[in-house]
Amino acid sequence: MDIQSFFEHCDDLLNRWSIEDRGLETDDAFLAIQKEGKGLLTKEYFGTMPEPFWGNPDCCSVVMINLNPAYKEGHESLFSRENTKKRIPNGYSSFAKGFPILDENSYNPEGRVWWEGRKKYLDRLVDAYPRKKHPDEKRLPFAIEICPWQTATWQETKINLARDKTLNSYIQKHVLEPAVYAVKKSQVDFAVGVGLPIIDALLDYGFTIEKSWGPETDDKRYRNNNTHSLPAKYPTTHKKGKAEKTPAEVFFKLLVKGDLKVLCIRMRGSNGVPRPEFREIVEPEILTYISNM
């Protein structure tokens, strides 16, 4: 993977968006399959700065694969074309490599809070990994978005990553290849993905489920007869209408393709990360398994 080509792609995307190049609506893989004024092409979403990645793929703690950035009311003003031109005078890649959302004086305070939570969880995994590289270094993660455009909910796009084959080459070239590159430069030899759409996308690109951890309430489509484990004393929760506690519907899946391993985490009804109690009971077993592969 030529990482410089990835940076050039991201810089070109942001430049064309900032100058309101209307050809972007047909040239961009995601925008091209949207209806005018709908989904990603609504006035608010298309008026908000796209965010293809954050962090430095050449020096990162861990790679995180996300679905797309989250839109909040007012983003079209905060991340407007006018403000973006002032914010990234040297191009998007130069700006994004430093993960500026996490800066103390972040231009996006609300986003900083969300990313601090994600970073705290990722740091936890990295620090606990038995084969952590460069253990004395404190690094930031590298986060790459499958879709760079903001939405309040992904469902609004009506995009099915497994069904919309026109996205195949884009995701392979601009998401998976940069992710593979960054994993090799990170402190651990696996990437992290959160949410069911990430699992769907990776399975569509030839990944297989090596092993699962979690309760048997997981959808059989994502079991695939693979090795399954429910560690002892798995965290529990109350289901609605149930008197007794049952294992929390938090599912860990290790997806593999070639030498790329991605630990995917899915929480039923949430796009969050597991509670701290998983640190002592579940995650050590998972990280030991990955490190022994």
Task: Describe the protein's architecture and organization.
The chain is an alpha/beta fold and 293 residues long. The chain has 11 helices and 10 strands. Helix content is 34%, strand content 15%. The strands form 2 sheets. It has an 8-stranded mixed β-sheet, with helices on one face. The longest helix is centred in the middle third of the chain and has 20 residues. The chain is globular, with a radius of gyration of 19 Å.
Structural class: alpha/beta
C-alpha Rg, in Å? 19 Å
SS elements, strand count: 10
The level of helicity is 25-40%
Q: Quote the beta fraction.
A: 15-25%
The residue-averaged pLDDT reads: 90
Shape: globular
Distance from N terminus to C terminus (CA atoms, Å) equals 24 Å
The total of helices stands at 11
> Main beta sheet: strand number and arrangement?
8 strands, mixed
Unreliable spans: none
| Strands in their spatial order, largest beta sheet | 1-3-2-4-10-9-5-6
String of helices and strands: HHHEEHHHHEHEHEEEEEEHH
